[in-house]
Input
Amino acid sequence: MAYFFLTAYRDYCDNYQVEILSELGYVYEDNKTIITQAETIVAFGVICALALIYLIKNNRLGLIAAYGIVVSGILLMGVSTVLLDAEIINGFWWMALVGLGAYLTYVPYGSVLFDRLIAHIKYVGTAVFVIYVADAIGYTGSISVQIYEDLFVGDKAGMLVFLGL
Output
């Protein structure tokens, strides 16, 4: 269920990043590199986190570390939103931190979480089927949010309120 909503949230934020940044006061015409700057921070953070998991050879500890990264991503999204509401950080840092949190939560599912889980329980097989099922569930969430927005909300600003942005 978490992956359903996480994928929907991630896709919506990615698909409407320009509009979200515009609502935050960063008009695209005046800030054409802002998405690249934010996504560079996201990419570097996710790569570093996953590289650290690679260094853990014990599958149980690796699984715990993968769950830790997922939980830290969720916490990062929440804390950064509180910081934005308290006007401690600006919209750019909020988008970068929420993006980092979303991807720290999203990426381990399709890369290390299921692999480490299968290795830890010593089941002979691969994680491919479980990853496909998780992706199917996740993209169902993404499509559901888009259909909801098109049929019931009708405008991006209303949907941003619905998603808590």
